[in-house]
Design goal:
- With 537 residues, this protein is an alpha+beta fold.
- Helix 3 crosses helix 4 and helix 3 runs antiparallel to helix 5.
- The N terminus is likely disordered.
Length: 537
């Protein structure tokens, strides 16, 4: 038991804090940190998977703090935000967004760009974080939901197929408790989705926000789950009493599978490149997990004590075959899930999702070892104190697996690591350089090792009026290496005091950036600055 606790604690410490975000922001227009010549009429933010905007939490803020955005819409992975003209257009703009990803998790963030010249960053009116009360409630509700499934499926299987001639009352009450826990978890998920989107506390939710969640794909899926739970409550009693006809049993099976499908439809599985496969595999994984874990619990609590040894001699081998088949399909489904969600072998150690999965597999290996010992007890001597202790270890370990699973579904899958690595960071440089002939405002984005670092330059008179030059040029030189400067042209754009170009940073280090600008046939001046380029990780 102590080893179990160590494994669980190690996994929770090794895993990252639940990220509540399974898509990454991979681009925007205007680009993060860029400088453009005029205020756009629309801005877009691009994500690594499909998203939907959170009402009231997507905005564009002008340099003077005025909100200038209209109603945001999403088309697949691209968020479109209409923008009206700002009263004071020059300066830094803020795009503040909060959206829900395809797997029902919130994504929040902010991106800046500048028009004409950078200024102080305006403040967003909304928070992009998750309140601690919501951060704690979500995995707790997930655990309750998994526990509810376990208490429904395992006891119901025993009552339908393997129950001996003894009282069914305790097991039937356990199934009812499972329905109650599943309903509470589902209602709790409906009640916390809005706060995940808004960043509000658990108790800060309005009727309008709840109505919006209920009308979303996520909400409709959970409402369907509640309806299926009600239908199962009505249809299941004959099965629990062992008097169900085949049509009734088939109806219960169909309702149960439909209910199980609502879990992957609101999780990782629906956001993969192969949703039909991953949703199906997730249903198999949930069903076999609930059957095995719930069966172990039923065996431990209700049957190993007080049942005649001759009855157990018939019952236990039959349960052993059920358990073996469940574990086989559980492992197959789990392997497919891992392959899809990890994306690569190195993600097992490189990502928090992979490390937590390894801990879960370690606990599962312990459970399987205990199951093998229990199977030998059954084959040799039937039920006894040794068997009860071994099955008790299995039950304790599977409770740890449930908790780990509840955390695992909140952690970004390993397959998204590439998208996160390519997520926009807004790492660029914006400066103002002066000479007796002109004032130059420029932006370089991104500032990273490689060939494609975009330069925007804007030229003004010393008095601050736009100044169309006769010629633009920029050069870069890696300092301290004895290398020659590399000259690059800048392309003049409209408005004519704006130019665009691309520069290369082939090696990490500090570069001298020199702009040489000829303002007319006789006058030319060069202004310089330095930029530090980090090494590629």
């Amino acid at each position: 038991m102590f080893l179990l606790l160590l494994l669980a604690l190690g996994g929770l410490l090794a895993a990252p804090e639940p990220a509540f975000a399974h898509a990454a922001t991979v681009g925007s227009s205007p680009a993060p940190g860029s400088v453009v010549g005029s205020s756009p009429t629309e801005v877009t933010v691009t994500f690594s998977e499909a998203v939907s905007p959170v009402s009231g939490h997507v905005q564009v803020v002008a340099p003077d703090g005025e909100r200038i955005s209209g109603l945001a819409t999403a088309r697949g992975a691209v968020l479109h935000i209409p923008v009206r003209s700002a009263k004071h257009p020059l300066g830094t703009y803020l795009i503040s967004y909060r959206v829900i990803s395809a797997d029902s998790h919130p994504i929040g963030g902010a991106i800046t760009f500048s028009v004409g010249a950078p200024s102080a960053r305006p403040e967003a009116a909304t928070s992009t974080g998750i309140h601690p009360s919501v951060r704690a409630a979500v995995p707790t509700l997930r655990t309750l939901g998994y526990a509810g499934l376990t208490l429904i499926v395992g006891p119901a299987m025993f009552l339908a197929f393997l129950w001996p001639r003894r009282s069914r009352t305790g097991a039937i009450r356990t199934v009812r408790l499972g329905f109650a826990l599943t309903a509470i978890a589902t209602l709790g998920s409906l009640g916390t989705q809005a706060q995940q989107g808004s960043g509000a506390a658990l108790w800060q939710v309005s009727a309008g926000e709840l109505a919006e969640v209920a009308g979303s794909r996520f909400g409709l899926t959970l409402l369907a789950r509640l309806a299926l739970l009600v239908a199962l409550v009505v249809a299941l009693p004959p099965v629990l009493r062992g008097t169900a006809t085949r049509p009734r049993a088939a109806l219960v099976l169909g309702l149960g599978l439909a209910g199980l499908a609502t879990w992957p439809l609101t999780g990782h599985a629906i956001a993969t490149p192969m949703p039909a496969v991953t949703v199906t595999v997730d249903v198999v994984h949930l069903a076999t997990m609930a059957l095995w874990l719930g069966g172990l619990l039923t065996l431990t609590v209700f049957l190993l004590r007080g049942t005649d040894r001759r009855v157990l001699g018939v019952l236990l081998p039959a349960w052993s075959r059920w358990a073996a088949l469940s574990v086989l399909w559980l492992v197959i489904a789990g392997t497919v899930q891992a392959v899809v969600q990890l994306g690569s072998v190195d993600a097992l150690l490189r990502t928090g999702y992979g490390r937590l999965l390894l801990v879960k597999l370690g606990v599962l290996a312990l459970v399987l070892a205990a199951a093998a010992v229990a199977r030998r007890f059954v084959q040799r001597s039937g039920a006894g104190s040794g068997l009860r202790r071994t099955v008790g270890v299995e039950v304790a370990a599977t409770a740890v697996i449930l908790a780990l699973s509840a955390v695992l579904v909140q952690v970004n899958p390993g397959r998204t690591a590439g998208a996160e690595a390519g997520a926009v960071t807004g790492v660029g440089v914006s400066q103002t350089l002066t000479s007796p002939l002109y004032t130059l405002q420029f932006n370089i984005y991104p500032v990273e090792q490689g060939e494609y670092n975009t330069v925007h330059a804007f030229l003004y008179t010393p008095e601050g009026k736009p100044l169309p030059p006769a010629e633009w040029q920029v050069s870069t030189q890696l300092m301290g290496q004895g290398l020659e400067a590399v000259k690059e042209p800048l392309l003049g754009l409209d408005p004519p005091h704006h130019a665009l170009g691309s520069i290369s940073f082939p090696l990490p280090g500090t570069y001298e950036i020199a702009f040489t600008i000829r303002v007319d046939d006789l006058n030319r001046a060069t202004v310089k600055t330095t930029v530090t380029v980090p090494a590629t990780s």
